[in-house]
Amino acid sequence: MMRSLRPVLAAGLFGLLPSVAFAHTGVGDAHGFSHGFFHPLTGIDHVLAMVAVGILAWQSGGRAVWAVPLAFVGLMVAGGALGATGMDLPYVEIGIALSVVVLGAAVAYGVTLPLAAAVGLAGFFALFHGHAHGAEMPENASGLAYGAGFVIATVMLHLAGIGVGMGIARIGERHGAALVRASGAAIALGGVVLLARLSV
Question: Model-level pTM?
Fold first, then answer.
């Protein structure tokens, strides 16, 4: 398991490098990085979905541990570019809320998708999350710094999800799977609440 986690950990560490580069640059870079970094962390919809991606990746095992989070990050960046340039993507908020429901439910039901399907599912929902990040980028922020910020925050949330899966499994080997599924059910329920709020 630890060997399969190395690419994800390496991606996280690599992602931290831009933050060092931006630490002593202009105000636009620092402003952009902080806004990008905190945007996923301050939205419960983003947090739940990204943690669910990490748990689902861990649950799937094998190459999915690193491929699913990396697919999410890659398509999220593409969605962010669309949002930042003003290109429209329909039903963004609904897509984000649905991602929480679907990803949480996949964890709750212990779904183990084929790698291509898991990557495709994560990447599809990542477009909506990325578009929201890009569309909400402050006008005076550096796009590169802002993008680096939300990528790093996202990688951290994915790693947190993987850690939740590993931690629960190790704490209770006998009931670990049930606890992981319960966490997925809680995430899915959170998504249902988000969807209900959108319909009000």
Answer: 0.80
